[in-house]
Write a structure and sequence with these properties.
Layout lengths: L5 H7 L31 H17 L2
Length: 62
């Protein structure tokens, strides 16, 4: 499920964020995360890290 158990977290944590980061490789078949054939391009790692850091700073202030 795309939501995982996110609704359960919302009961406990007053401030929350859920986002999806696309990891598909151009020209390759899209395979689900929980599959031994899953692969992604390393170029997505800095984008994802920057997104998470930006969300933390926005929520908690800097």
């Amino acid at each position: 499920m795309g939501s995982e158990d996110f609704s359960l977290y919302l009961r406990e944590i007053p401030r929350w964020v859920l986002f999806r980061l696309g990891l598909a490789l151009p020209g390759k078949e899209i395979i689900g995360l929980h599959n031994d054939q899953f692969d992604f391009t390393d170029a997505t790692l800095p984008v994802g890290a920057a997104m998470m850091a930006g969300l933390v700073l926005r929520i908690h202030g800097s």
